[in-house]
Amino acid sequence: MSGIEIQELSLVYKTGREKFLALDNISTRIEDGEFICVVGSSGCGKSTLLGVLEGLMTPSSGRVLIDGKPIHGTGPERAVVFQQYTLFPWMNAIQNVIFGIKQVRRDLSAKQLEDTGMEFLQKVGLKDFMYKLPGEMSGGMQQRVAIARALAVNPKILLMDEPFGAIDAKTRLTLQEMLLKLWAEDEKKKTVVFVTHDIDEAILLADKILFMAPKRISHEIPVTMPRPRDRDSMYDNKKFRDLRNKLVILFYNEVKEHIGGEEVFL
Ligand SMILES: Nc1ncnc2c1ncn2[C@@H]1O[C@H](COP(=O)(O)OP(=O)(O)OP(=O)(O)O)[C@@H](O)[C@H]1O
Ligand SMILES: [Mg+2]
Question: From ligand 1's centre to the CA of 47, what distance in Å?
Fold first, then answer.
């Protein structure tokens, strides 16, 4: 069966004698080509879940299947983009992208690597910056290079952990729209699992939102607004406003649960 299948997944962090249950018996299915956003308050387990999908963390129990096969460690069909800028500071933009490609394509010549690197830098609007070092680029530009590096390996699955979290609001809008365009124009759409704190961002991007309460997925919320989507038309859309309210209330009740207080109902 194709897609990602998460089956009764639990993860316990062990530090010395201390044990901490970070994910508690999570099960869900993600279809091929779906854009999934994972939202939830800080510490609820979003990055842990992504770490398991990446293959850097091994489940304490349960398993993750990709196309019917259990994952063991990382794999070339998965690429990641994190919030922290993860480019090599001593390599320029195109060298960073080429480094990524080389990890999975050892058969390409230097010329083919260069051409592919350039093609993907062009896709993220950075062709003129290919010889710049990360230190000479803004945070937004560095994230574009990181996205180019992830896409250039042509992964089936793109895992993104608050990739725009450290970026100013205006640049963030540009990057969201760029990502949506790149995802939509792909003939064979990538499956994207995108962690964010930003409700508007989640609604703009997602086919389905997984809302995490601590340790588990408490709600799976389909986003049925038609594509292509853009911010301006979304704010005028009643479905958008209703969904936004629902998510705000979920967040609010989540916080209330921690600090005590009345529950709010829709
Ligand atoms: N290496 C670790 N050892 C022990 N506990 C950890 C470790 N990493 C995370 N945790 C704990 O696991 C829980 C989930 O952490 P995680 O980083 O997945 O949360 P998150 O939802 O990504 O939070 P944020 O929104 O702040 O990034 C937290 O309570 C955190 O303190
Ligand atoms: Mg996190």
Answer: 7
